């Protein structure tokens, strides 16, 4: 088969030209837009048959970014959380969702569009959270979501305060054994 793609129905400019032995062709790096497709069979002698021509629209949504932090292996302490992902470069925009369940049936936080490959959130209560991020194209359309990450937001453990009365005289170094709180 000969497969050709052109932005015009007369095929004056050819955007892609491929020969394949299967009735399937993968045309890589074709920008978004309206195109014409021309396909013809090639017999065993190399003689090409009649054209089959059709119109199609190429519309590719951006790939999802890669979540970086926080993850299940890095719990966050306090009420502040910083979400980071591997960005797609300058000019890229993103959408973020944070939820209490992995299906995102009721997202607690939705931010779109974000211009940086991170966002900082305050007032996060202790508990288990799930988050995901998507790339947003110039038209404001979000691509598919990234893999879902989870993490634990933990309460800040207060620093223990030891009060020693002024009348106590310590002759040796003082050692306190405090329980470890997780």
How would you characterize the overall build of this protein?
There is one protein chain. This protein has 182 residues and is mostly beta strands. 0% of the residues lie in helices and 38% in strands. It contains no helices and 12 strands. The protein has strands spanning 2-6, 16-19, 33-40, 52-58, 66-69, 76-77, 81-86, 93-99, 109-114, 118-121, 127-136, 149-154. The strands form 3 sheets. Strands 6-12-11-8-9 form a 5-stranded mixed sheet, with no helix packed on it. Strands 2-1-3-4 form a 4-stranded antiparallel sheet, with no helix packed on it. A 3-stranded antiparallel sheet has the order 5-7-10, with no helix packed on it. It is rod-shaped. The mean pLDDT is 88.
Topology readout:
Blueprint: E1 2-6, E2 16-19, E3 33-40, E4 52-58, E5 66-69, E6 76-77, E7 81-86, E8 93-99, E9 109-114, E10 118-121, E11 127-136, E12 149-154
Parallel strand pairs: 6-12
Antiparallel strand pairs: 1-2, 1-3, 3-4, 5-7, 7-10, 8-9, 8-11, 11-12
Could you name the key traits of this structure?
mainly beta; 0% helix; 182 residues; four-stranded antiparallel β-sheet
The helix/strand class is mainly beta
Strand content: 35-45%
Question: H/E element string?
Answer: EEEEEEEEEEEE
Helix content percent band: under 10%
- Adjacency order of strands in the biggest sheet: 6-12-11-8-9
Give the low-pLDDT segments. Answer: none
The span between the termini is 65 Å
Output the radius of gyration. 29 Å
Number of helices: 0
Total DSSP E strands: 12
The backbone outline, from C-alpha atoms, is rod-shaped
Mean pLDDT: 88
Largest sheet: 5 strands, mixed
